[in-house]
Specification:
The structure holds two protein chains of two kinds.
Chain A lengths: L7 E6 L3 H11 L7 E4 L7 E6 L4 H10 L3 E6 L2 H16 L1
Antiparallel strand pairs in A: 1-3, 1-4, 2-3
Chain B lengths: L15 H14 L4 E8 L5 E7 L8 E6 L7 H16 L4 H9 L1 E5 L4 H9 L52 H13 L2 E9 L3 E4 L11 H19 L4 E4 H4 L7 H7 L4 E7 L14 H21 L3
Parallel strand pairs in B: 3-4, 3-5, 5-8, 6-7
Antiparallel strand pairs in B: 1-2, 2-4, 6-8
The chains are: A alpha+beta, B alpha/beta.
């Protein structure tokens, strides 16, 4: 079973076309193993990006250096998944 | 084993087996209205089931609804289950549902990508694609909503098997997609297609693969406007609406573009709750509110199609 301990989902606001391009370039870096939950489309549309724990620092630095604003949408993906599992178990009982 | 829809927990997420068992219960409870048909098999040989709601009569015009084409979007089959139950329960009670089913059949595929869905329960909760293997690549799966023969292969999808939007080797390469294509083509009288996704709060219509507006743009736009307005009435959930390419992004090979290009004038794609909080991990406490608010919008569209035969 794949675990997502420490993974975060970042809610990113791209304010111009350059940001969109930068986010697309970021997404193409396969070693970071990023997963766009909402893809970069146009300025003003939020982008949601799931970032594995080992890539978090690199991604946050990239965003900050390029003045792309973001907030943390999900602090720890695995915590939410554990909660979901617990709820399903409870419901089954 | 749950044997009654009245004891089934609609406010919880369920496994594929539980959903398939529930389908049988729904059929048992409404034998003169609901039947279950199999339209094909998935890549891993799971049955592809469709619920058929029909009050009889041969070769009636029909409505196609599907949920769960992207495996991790769990809120969509959960909403689908609630909605299918609602359709069955409201026939003979709600005048709109009754009028629709007195003239049209409804086909509802609750788990459109069962291999992916089972995989989200056993191996990777955040899996999106099908589970077919790709020759020459270690990456698995095709995005079943980039695999349709509508602008297939264009820039709004990926040719990389490792991408989440990989279009596949050729249009309709995925059994899950081909089964629907064959069914809708074979039926010949499908008048409405609604494909349900999550989670951007949008109601979209063709095109996604090109910027040109469809000839019916104005009518679809007006209908979408009414639907999202009625959806918002319950909890104030704000949806945007418009053509896919203008509202979200360019996407090639999507189901609603294929439907439109194949004669289905009314083709919509829903993006359910929520914006910027939980994404694909929407808590189960939001299943009923999501399904409940979506219902009037679905009904608006279905009634419009009933009242505007073509």
């Amino acid at each position: 079973e794949k675990l997502f301990v420490g993974d975060q989902v970042l809610h990113i606001m791209a304010s111009n076309e350059e940001h969109i391009t930068l986010l697309r370039v970021l997404g193409e870096q396969e070693e970071l193993q990023l997963d766009f939950w909402r893809h970069p489309t146009s300025p003003g549309h939020p982008v949601d990006l799931q970032v594995p724990f080992p890539s978090l620092q690199a991604v946050k630095i990239f965003l900050e250096v390029n003045n792309i604003s973001y907030s943390i949408m999900i602090e720890d993906v695995q915590e939410l998944l554990n909660e979901e599992k617990k709820t399903m178990k409870k419901s089954r009982r | 084993v749950e044997r009654s829809t009245s004891t089934f927990d609609f406010a919880s997420y369920h496994t594929l087996d539980e959903i398939y068992d529930w389908m049988d219960i729904l059929v048992d409870n409404h034998p003169s209205l609901v039947s279950k048909i199999q339209i094909g098999q998935s890549y891993e040989n799971r049955p592809l089931y469709v619920l058929k709601f029909s009050t009889g009569g041969p070769n009636r015009p029909a409505i196609w609804l599907d949920t769960g084409i992207h495996a991790r979007e769990w809120i969509t089959p959960a909403t689908g289950i609630w909605t299918a139950n609602k359709i069955a329960e409201e026939y003979g009670r709600d005048p709109s549902v009754t009028a629709i089913l007195d003239s049209m059949d409804i086909f509802f595929e609750i788990v459109t990508n069962p291999d992916g869905f089972a995989f989200t329960h056993s191996n990777n909760r955040l899996w999106r694609k099908t589970r077919s293997t790709n020759t020459g690549s270690h990456c698995i799966g095709v995005d079943p909503n980039r695999n349709w023969d509508a602008g297939f292969g264009g820039s709004g999808s990926s040719s990389n098997p490792c991408s989440e939007t990989y279009r596949g080797p050729y249009a309709h390469s995925e059994r899950e997609v081909k089964a629907i294509v064959d069914f809708i083509r074979g039926h010949r009288k499908v008048k409405l297609v609604i494909s349900i996704h999550s989670y951007s709060q949008m109601l979209l219509f063709p095109y996604g693969y090109k910027t040109a507006p469809v000839p019916d743009h104005q009518e679809l736009n007006e209908l979408a406007k009414k639907a999202v307005s009625d959806l918002a009435a319950l909890y104030g959930t704000k949806y945007t609406y418009g053509s896919m390419v203008d509202t979200i992004y360019m996407a090639d090979g999507t189901s609603i573009d294929w439907a439109y290009d194949n004669g289905v004038k009314y083709a919509f794609s829903f993006e359910l709750r929520d914006t910027g909080r939980y994404g694909f991990l929407l808590p189960s406490t939001q299943i009923i509110p999501t399904a409940t608010e979506t219902w009037p919008a679905l009904l608006d569209i279905m009634v419009h199609v009933l009242e505007h035969p073509y």
